[in-house]
Amino acid sequence: xxxxxxxxxxxxxxxxxxxxxxxxxxxxxxxxxxxxxxxxxxxxxxxxxxxxxxxxxxxxxxxxxxxxxxxxxxxxxxxxxxxxxxxxxxxxxxxxxxxxxxxxxxxxxxxxxxxxxxxxxxxxxxxxxxxxxxxxxxxxxxxxxxxxxxxxxxxxxxxxxxxxxxxxxxxxxxxxxxxxxxxxxxxxxxxxxxxxxxxxxxxxxxxxxxxxxxxxxxxxxxxxxxxxxxxxxxxxxxxxxxxxxxxxxxxxxxxxxxxxxxxxxxxxxxxxxxxxxxxxxxxxxxxxxxxxxxxxxxxxxxxxxxxxxxxxxxxxxxxxxxxxxxxxxxxxxxxxxxxxxxxxxxxxxxxxxxxxxxxxxxxxxxxxxxxxxxxxxxxxxxxxxxxxxxxxxxxxxxxxxxxxxxxxxxxxxxxxxxxxxxxxxxxxxxxxxxxxxxxxxxxxxxxxxxxx
Length: 452
Hints:
By secondary structure, the chain is mainly alpha-helical. The chain has helices at about 10-30, 45-55, 65, 70-85, 85-95, 105-115, 120-150, 155-170, 190-205, 205-215, 225-230, 230-255, 265-280, 295-310, 320-335, 350-375, 380-395, 410-425, 425-430; strands spanning about 340-345, 345-350.
């Protein structure tokens, strides 16, 4: 009897690559050599750490700085870099570095991994991504060294490299202390360097190249540069700017008289801390103030910013800036009874609108189900639970001090949530759609229904 050949779509392969990376990382982290104390940590914590690293989330059940040895920290950093760039991307980059050509299947894999619209110029795009990543991460490490080497000596070099990669990949994991970046809340160099790395990583590689190309071509007409950019770049830059500024203003207002956060700080430091909070909620996960000390209003703003996240084709998570813009303006167009949606004098396709709605819906469903399940296994406050699940779904890494106290069931729930949040809602839908596309000769009849 002839065996039926198993078909793996590109989405299945991407999902499996992340899963295999997590499993391999968890096995390595469960070894005694990975532990700072020389004794193997519980496997569930090793699995949690591997998942949060590959999914570049940042939620940790055990303090990174005191739990893991240098070997363990190197494993975590490799997993973060793999998760930030994508395992398929790194494998393809190695193939190119060996002077070999990428096959059609590899090109399609990269296209799906970055959610690109075409496989044209994939090799050049991949080289630029890898080169650009290492250049930015290297520059970030050098800037960090000006602070960490004087404070930690030669260990400051390792801390700088680790923090730079973690910040660019929007992972939010550090090896300095157990309270993230709270000790450096008022340090301009650490704040500016971290913010730049987070923003550059989260804005998306396509925006990078678009800005560079347009700036070169129209350097004598700087005021026309923005108008010459692609629609994707215009939306990503505009929404990112609005969210960063509005988030910082709202945090400044809501925390101004909060003695647990910024009340007793100078005006400059209040602005500095408020802006950093606005940046880090865009899926970065570093905390310069304990999240449990925020007011309820600031926590709600943080939830919204975390859920939106960064921009497509970048290292950030969330539903993405372009998605939220398309859904929001698509809703307004529907209210106005307009047949088409246009942004920056460009029409948005119905397929893009449908995809944006699907991403938003599936992300919300993952977050909602995770919240219900986590509520069933823990007696924590609802705000803390929602903060945890939104952070895991959007791969942010901020917590109201709930992660370290999770029981085994809570850890399993958050592990699955981080994984599903990282591989992407659309990939999840396609991967579990076992039915192959079929040509319907006779289409189903149309019947009107009431909406709303």
